[in-house]
Design a protein that fits this description.
Blueprint: H1 4-10, H2 17-26, E1 67-77, E2 80-89, E3 94-101, H3 106-119, E4 128-131, H4 135-138, H5 140-149, E5 152-155, H6 165-175
Parallel strand pairs: 1-4, 4-5
Antiparallel strand pairs: 1-2, 2-3
Length: about 180
């Protein structure tokens, strides 16, 4: 679809943008706009495995091993794409568990979580882990592991990357695209 100025130019009339804007105002023409994008307005309805956001952007837990955030990023290598899953302790901002694999699936995040649980002195009943709503975190085997370990799960609202900002910032710093 052509804009008003493009239509005038196509018909052989050359009109600058300021003159075009003035003519539109005089003719009381208005541009149809799309509804504004509002992230975080509603949680996903009907998606299987989605749980409530219990973290609520409280990125400073009172003690270590009380709140972990998880995420996945991809890395280009000489043998193709590799996927990195990490768990970060929000108290210390340290990576407590990670794994790298050629597949991005539930076993990727489960392996990283098992490594984190094995390396840290954790009381699972007091641990809250927070992720986005990726399919890996909604998979039955992942949710069953959390239930078995009595770990509380929290997920960001759909389209709300700020709820998992600590992990996202780590990935931007690692790739060199984040703040310095």
């Amino acid at each position: 679809m052509l804009t008003g100025n493009q239509q005038l130019r196509a018909s052989g009339r050359h009109v600058g943008r300021h003159r075009g804007a003035r003519l539109k105002r005089r003719a009381e023409l208005r541009v149809r706009t799309h509804k504004a994008f509002r992230p975080c307005s509603k949680a996903s309805r009907g998606a299987v495995g989605v749980v409530e956001n219990l973290l609520q952007q409280e990125f400073q837990p009172p003690a270590p091993n009380r709140c972990w955030a998880g995420g996945i990023t991809y890395i280009r290598s000489s043998s193709g794409w590799r996927y990195l899953a990490v768990w970060i302790d929000l108290f210390s901002r340290r990576i407590v568990g990670w794994t790298l694999d050629a597949r991005v699936d539930a076993p990727l995040v489960i392996e990283a979580l098992n490594r984190a649980l094995g390396h840290r002195q954790v009381e699972p009943e007091q641990l809250l882990i927070h992720t986005d709503q990726g399919s890996q975190y909604r998979a039955n085997n992942y949710l069953e592991l959390l239930q078995k370990e009595k770990i509380t799960c929290s997920m960001s609202a759909k389209g709300c990357c700020w709820d998992n900002a600590v992990v996202e910032l780590l990935f931007h710093l690692e790739t060199g695209t984040g703040p310095r």
